[in-house]
Amino acid sequence: MDIDPRLHFVVATCIIEKDGKFLIVKRAAHEKAFPNRWTVPGGKLVLHEYEHLPKTAGFPQWYGVVEWVLRKEVKEEVDLEIEKPKYLCDLVFVRLDGYPVVTLSYFAKYKSGEVKISKDFTDYAWVSASEVSKYDLIEGIGDEIKEVAGILGV
Fold it and tell me: Is 79 helix (H, G, I), strand (E, B) or coil?
C-alpha cells in the first residue's frame, strides 16, 4: 500500500488531573497502535465527526476543533467532563501499518463524572507522577505526566 507522505492522522490526547492523581487507561489488544499498553484518553480528528459543526463566524474553517475532539473523546472513552484543556506538547510517530501520526498532547483538570471505560480499553487507574513507572506506558507518556505534575505543582 502506498501512503501519500503528506497525509497524517492527527490525534489529540489529554492528561487528566484529579486530586494530585492522573488518569491512565490500558489499550485493548485489538488496537492497531500500542495494543495492551497504558496511555491517556484521546483520539483522532475525523472529518465526518466535525464537518457538520458550525463554522466559526462565517469563516470557511473551524476554530477550536482540537478542544472539541478532546472533550468528545474523553466523554466517549472514560465518561468524564474536563475543564479547559491546555497545550503541553506535540510528537510524531509512524504506526506499524505505515501511517504517520501527529499527536497533540494536552492536559486538563477533572470537572465531573465517574470513570467508565469504553471497549477500546481494558483497565484504568488514577496514579501519581511517582507511580507512572509501575505501568507499561507508551513511551513518553510518563514523562508528559511528570511534566504536567510539575506545571500544576502536584
Answer: coil
Question: Could you tell me if 125 and 40 are in contact, meaning their C-beta atoms sit under 8 angstroms apart?
Answer: no
Which pTM was predicted?
0.91
- Residue 2 included in any domain: no
Residue 100 counted as domain residue: yes
Q: Environment class of residue 48 by beta-carbon count within 10 Å: exposed (0-12), middle (13-18) or buried (19+)? A: exposed
Number of structural domains (the chain) is 1
Beta strand 86-94 pairing with 100-112 = antiparallel
Provide the phi-psi class of 20: left if phi over 0, else alpha when psi is between -120 and 50, else beta. Answer: left
CATH number at residue 70: 3.90.79.10
pLDDT digits (tens, 9 = 90+) for 123-154: 999 999 999 999 999 999 999 999 999 999 99
C-alpha cell at 52: 457538520
Domain range enclosing 27: 9-152
With cell 491546555, the residue in question is: 86
Beta bridge pairs of residue 105: 13, 89
